[in-house]
């Protein structure tokens, strides 16, 4: 005897899935369209400010203006690792060097001492802080290319 | 996002689609497909062709990744394909295509529903700035460095002083991103590469459609695509179309390779096209190699069982499948050789066989509930896997075909890799939460094909019931393709 109920049940389940998930999918599309229409007149900068916060984007803008694209910066965090990665992404293509104690202790890090900018991430969506340090070429180290270009 | 930015994003899609369509003209296994079934493969092929060509030019010959190189690399296959298309039309080959029957209304509505759902992530990608974890941590920084320095070997990668996370990850997607950004002159904060990832979702769905159509006919194909397009994770999840993760591209490449190798007519061109897709998988994500090897084995088994000519022909097909993947692996190894190890996630670096065997059992109580939780999580999958299991159980007669069993095996490979990673990793709970959905995504195409085959069985059972009462549903049955 052929067992017919399970296929019917499965088709019923499929219909239910298509109805519910389909409605969710279409609603998501409608919401995105609505968001697109509402933000169509916004510039990229204004859109970023809406998503990431005004303070954060203003701080990033300020750091971008200060650090030239070809000059590296030291990166540290007072928050989580994620916020540091967020800041690093927004400062691309500037190259980051992770601020860390000399390894092994007592040695001189040739690179870190020659970088004059320190950017500190302070947490998710919170504005990063920029500090200018005194960069110098330590004894026994050769001057890195960006030190020759920096004013 | 401005109108110019939207146009640049869509032009970014064309940057890979047209070269892919051009190449497809030269590959009979793809060229003879109708456009809607060819388009997904063409996009994937375009990404592989343009990406690998730029990779080789930059890495081996030092040619800068600037507009002239990108334009030539994209225009050459598109132009060659156009020439071949014109030549074939002149010879009258195009006129010999089969007569098309008008599509049934419900299939048109289903197609429109899929289109409407996919427009959501496309709109989102064109509206909001990128805000996902892996995209901002790994893939986009590499793309930005490549574009800034005009090379696939930027200084940030080759010098260990610079802060880079997951440095040895394969560079195909960052390269494609950099090509789009450079080609259309993106300025600071302009993300012209966002549609690129939505393109992979569209390609994935088209590949599923083509695969299920080959294996189970058009009705099962459109129903499967409709079901597979709806889970929100595919569109908006961390790894979906609005993110810049490489899981969706990997899923599309792996799935396309499986369709061409396990469902295509055995021949040199389908073997070569499948091999190119595997090359794309190898260069998309680290797991690509782990997926390519079983796919190659499954393809080899099928080719060996269905050898229809002299032994030399079978060996030629096996070579066509494996050479692109091996070449991609060699290129990747050469690129990685210049990159020092830094903060990199290495799931299998501390792998010991004893750990694997012992933990495979000891960790089951820890892994299984988490895996089930994420698989059936409503917010990510909207019940898709419940339906999947129900269809498979009731349509289990489909497993009598060896092809379906092979597809199921291919679908279980990403999940087995995930299980292996969970067995040896220390922070297993967190890892499952971060990665399991993405492994399900990588397995989606082969599992959707299995779903389609089981669905075909259910449709046939329903149709045969109607046939017995002499109803008009007879044509449903006649539309099925022969069992392959």
Briefly characterize the structure.
The complex is a heterodimer of chains A (151) and B (484). Chain A is of the alpha/beta class. Chain A has a domain at 44-148.
List the helices and strands and how they pair.
The complex is a heterodimer of chains A (about 150) and B (about 475).
Chain A lengths: L4 H35 L4 H9 L1 H13 L6 E5 L3 H10 L5 E3 L18 E5 L7 E4 L12 H5 L2
Parallel strand pairs in A: 1-2, 1-3
Antiparallel strand pairs in A: 3-4
Helix pairs in contact in A: 2-3
Chain B lengths: L2 H24 L1 H4 L3 H27 L5 H25 L13 H23 L5 H17 L5 H4 L13 H12 L10 H23 L1 H12 L2 H5 L10 H17 L4 H17 L2 H19 L5 H27 L15 H10 L1 H12 L2 H4 L2 H11 L7 H23 L3 H15 L1 H25 L5 H5 L6
Describe the protein's architecture and organization.
The complex is a heterodimer of chains A (151) and B (484). With 151 residues, chain A is an alpha/beta fold. Chain A has a domain at 44-148. Chain A has helices at residues 5-39, 44-52, 54-66, 81-90, 145-149; strands at residues 73-77, 96-98, 117-121, 129-132. In chain A, strands 2-1-3-4 form a four-stranded mixed sheet. Chain A is elongated. Chain B is an all-alpha fold and 484 residues long. Chain B has a domain at 3-86 and 125-343. Chain B has helices at 3-26, 28-31, 35-61, 67-91, 105-127, 133-149, 155-158, 172-183, 194-216, 218-229, 232-236, 247-263, 268-284, 287-305, 311-337, 353-362, 364-375, 378-381, 384-394, 402-424, 428-442, 444-468, 474-478. In chain B, helix 5 (105-127) runs antiparallel to helix 9 and helix 6 packs across helix 8 (172-183). The radius of gyration of chain B is 22 Å and the shape is globular.
């Amino acid at each position: 005897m052929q067992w017919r109920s399970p296929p019917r049940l499965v088709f019923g389940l499929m219909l239910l899935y298509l109805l519910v998930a389909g409605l969710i999918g279409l609603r998501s599309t409608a919401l995105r369209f609505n968001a697109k229409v509402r933000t169509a007149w916004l510039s990229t900068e204004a859109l970023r400010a809406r998503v990431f916060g005004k303070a954060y984007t203003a701080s990033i803008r300020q750091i971008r203006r200060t650090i030239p694209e070809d000059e590296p910066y030291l990166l540290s965090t007072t928050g989580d690792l994620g916020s540091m990665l967020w800041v690093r992404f927004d400062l691309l293509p500037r190259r980051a060097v992770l601020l860390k104690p000399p390894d092994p202790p007592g040695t001189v890090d040739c690179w870190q001492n020659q970088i004059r900018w320190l950017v500190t991430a302070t947490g998710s969506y919170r504005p990063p802080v920029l500090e200018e340090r005194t960069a110098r070429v330590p004894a026994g180290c050769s001057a890195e290319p960006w030190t020759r270009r920096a004013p | 996002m401005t109108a110019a930015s939207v146009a640049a994003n869509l032009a970014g899609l064309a940057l890979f689609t047209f070269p892919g369509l051009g190449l497809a003209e030269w590959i009979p296994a793809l060229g003879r497909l109708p456009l809607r079934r060819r388009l997904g493969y063409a996009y994937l092929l375009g990404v592989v062709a343009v990406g690998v060509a730029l990779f080789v030019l930059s890495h081996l010959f030092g040619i800068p990744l600037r507009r002239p190189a990108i334009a030539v690399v994209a225009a050459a296959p598109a132009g060659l394909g156009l020439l071949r298309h014109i030549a074939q039309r002149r010879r009258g080959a195009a006129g010999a295509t089969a007569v098309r029957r008008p599509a049934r209304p419900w299939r048109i509505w289903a197609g429109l529903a899929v289109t409407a759902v996919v427009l959501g992530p496309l709109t989102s990608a064109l509206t909001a700035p990128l805000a996902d974890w892996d995209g901002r941590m790994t893939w986009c920084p590499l793309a930005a460095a490549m574009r800034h320095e005009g090379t696939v070997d930027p200084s940030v990668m080759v010098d260990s002083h610079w802060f880079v996370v997951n440095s040895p990850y394969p560079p195909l997607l960052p390269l494609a991103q950099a090509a789009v950004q450079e080609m259309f002159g993106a300025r600071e904060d302009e993300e012209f590469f966002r549609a690129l990832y939505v393109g992979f979702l569209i390609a994935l769905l088209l590949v599923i459609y083509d695969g299920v159509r080959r294996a189970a006919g058009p009705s099962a194909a459109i129903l499967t695509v409709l079901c597979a397009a709806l889970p929100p994770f595919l569109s908006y999840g961390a790894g979906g179309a609005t993110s810049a993760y490489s899981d969706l591209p990997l899923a599309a490449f792996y799935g396309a390779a499986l369709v061409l190798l396990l469902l295509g007519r055995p021949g040199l061109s389908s073997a070569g096209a499948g091999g190119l897709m595997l090359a794309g998988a190898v260069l998309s994500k680290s797991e690509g190699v782990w997926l390519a090897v079983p796919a190659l084995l499954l393809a080899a088994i099928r080719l060996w069982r269905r050898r229809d000519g002299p032994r030399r022909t079978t060996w030629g097909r096996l070579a066509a499948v494996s050479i692109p993947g091996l070449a991609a692996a060699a290129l990747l190894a050469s690129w990685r050789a210049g990159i020092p190890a830094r903060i990199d996630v290495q799931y299998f670096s501390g792998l010991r066989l004893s750990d694997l065997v012992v933990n495979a059992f000891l960790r089951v109580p820890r892994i299984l509930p988490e895996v089930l939780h994420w698989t059936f999580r409503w917010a990510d999958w909207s019940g898709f896997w419940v339906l999947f299991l129900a269809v498979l159980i009731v349509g289990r007669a489909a497993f009598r075909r060896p092809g379906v069993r092979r597809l199921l095996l291919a679908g279980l490979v990403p999940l087995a890799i995930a299980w292996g990673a969970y067995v040896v990793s220390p922070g297993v709970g967190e890892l499952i939460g971060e990665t399991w959905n993405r492994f399900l995504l990588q397995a989606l195409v082969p599992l959707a094909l299995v779903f389609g085959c089981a669905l075909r069985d259910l449709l046939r059972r329903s149709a045969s019931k109607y046939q017995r009462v002499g109803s008009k549903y007879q044509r449903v049955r006649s539309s099925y393709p022969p069992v392959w």
